[in-house]
Amino acid sequence: MSRHSPQVGSRRGLAALEAGLGEDLTRLGLPRASWTARRDGPDGTTLHDVLVIGGGQFGIGLAAALKLAGIPDTLVIDRAEEGSEGPWTTFARMPTLRSPKHLPGICFGIPRLTFQSWYRARFGDAAWGALYKIPNAIWQDYIGWVRRTLDLPVWNGVEATRLEPAADHVAVMLSDGTRLHARHVVVATGRGAVGGQNHVAGISPALGPDRVAHTSDEIDFERLRGKRVAVVGVGASAFDNAATAMEAGAASVDMLARRHALPQLNKGRPSSGIGFLEGWAGLPDADRWRLAVYLDAMQGVPPHETVLRALERPGLSVHFATRLLSAKPSGEGLRLEVENGPTGEYDFLILGTGFRVDLSREPLFDAISPRIALWRDTYMPPDDLVRPHLGLYPYLGDALELKATEGPPLDRIHLFNAASWLSAGAMALDMPSLDIAPARLVTGITRALFAEDFEAIFASLCDWQDEHELEATPFYAPRYVNETGR
C-alpha cells in the first residue's frame, strides 16, 4: 500500500477529526456573529462585503478568516474547475512542495485545521512519520478539505476580467458579461494577474506554442520523446520542467544560465520567519527597498531534490555564463543562437524565466492602472540601489490596499498576491505565512468595514435591549433601561 493511500478506517479518522474541529470552533465561539450592515448593490443585487478573486490556498485561507471573523457575506471566484485552482495539479511540475511538511497550513492557531492533523487522520500516524515532503496533489486535497469543512462560498469556472471602483463599492466584470459588486475586492491570485510571464528578447513569434512555451503553460511532454529540448533559466521551475522532459523521454535537455553558478543559499528560509512576516510592512521605505534589492539579487535556489531528479537520466547539460541571442524557426524545429553556449538546432524551447510585476499589463486593472501608486512614484532609492523592475511594484497600504496617485481612492481593492511582496514581504507569497496572513488582512478589512458601517452599528448598539441584566434582582428598574448615566 502506498503511504499516500488512505488506510482502512480513514473515513472514521476524518469524521472524528471533523467532529473534534466542530467542538473546537464551538468552544472558541467561532465563527463570530455576523456584524456588518446589510447593503444592496447599485442594481439591487447583493453587495458582498468582500469578493475574493482566486480560490487557491490564499483565497481559501482568506475566505475562512473572513467567515470566522463574522464577515460571512463573502464570495470567492476562480476561473479553474474545483480541484484545479492554483498551480499544484497544473503547471507545478515538481512531485512535492518545496516547503517542509511541518508548516501549519490554513489553521488560525486551531490544531485540528492544520495539514498535519488532516494528513494523519486520512493516512495514519505511520504515514506521517515516513513523509518527507508533501506531494502536490495531497496539498490540493487538503485545501479542498478546508473549503468543504468550513463550507466556504466558492464559484468555480468564473473569471474576473475588469475592476471598476465606485465611491462605495467595486464592480467586478466577469468574462460572461455578468457584474458582481462588493465593498472590498481582494485579488488573491498567487503569481498570476500581476503582470504576466517574463520573456526574453530575440524569440521569434513565428515559433508559436508548438515549439516554445513558458514553464507555466500547458505542455504536452509526451511530444518531447526523443526530442532535443532547450530550457532558458536554472531556477526551480526550470529544473522541474527539464526533469519532466527527461522523464518523458527527451533525447537531451540543454539548460542555459546567465549566471556563473547556481545560487547556493536559500535566503527564502530565514526571510519567511515570523519577524519578517510581521515586521516587514512596518519598516521605513528605505529598509524595505534595501531588503527587496538584496533578496531579488540572491534569487531562489532550486532544491537539491529537484536538481538530483533532473540528473537521474543521462542527457541533461547545464551551461553557465551564457546568453540567448535569438530563437528562430528552422524546419520543423528551431535554431538557437547562444553567446558562449550551445548554438544549434532544437525541437522545443522552454522558458523558465519566471513572472514580472507590472499591473499596467493586466486587463483586470485597465480601468485604474494609470492611477495606481507604484514604488517608483513614492520612493527614490540611492543610485546604487536603483532597480527599475522593482519600481513597478504597487505601493500598498497596511491592509494591502491600492493607493491612488490622483483622483478617487482605490483602497477598496487589496492585493493578496505576489505584487504585495515589496510592500509586505512574503506575507501573501508562500506557504510559511498561511497560518497568519489571512487573519492579518481580515483585521485591516474589518477596520474599514467597521468605520464605514459605524452609524448603523452605533444605532444598533443604542437599540440593543436583549439582556436585562438586573431583571432577577431587587434593583431592576425597566423605566431606566435607556438611561446613559444621568
From TrEMBL:
Molecular-function annotations in GO: flavin adenine dinucleotide binding; monooxygenase activity
UniProt cross-references to SUPFAM superfamilies, sorted A to Z: FAD/NAD(P)-binding domain
Pfam families assigned to the protein according to its UniProt record, in alphabetical order: Pyr_redox_3
Coiled coil: none
Name by which UniProt lists this protein: Cation diffusion facilitator CzcD-associated flavoprotein CzcO
Annotated InterPro entries: Auxin_biosynth/cation_transpt, FAD/NAD-bd_sf
Top-level taxon in the UniProt lineage: Bacteria
Entry keywords, A to Z: Oxidoreductase
Gene3D superfamilies: FAD/NAD(P)-binding domain
Annotated source species: Palleronia aestuarii
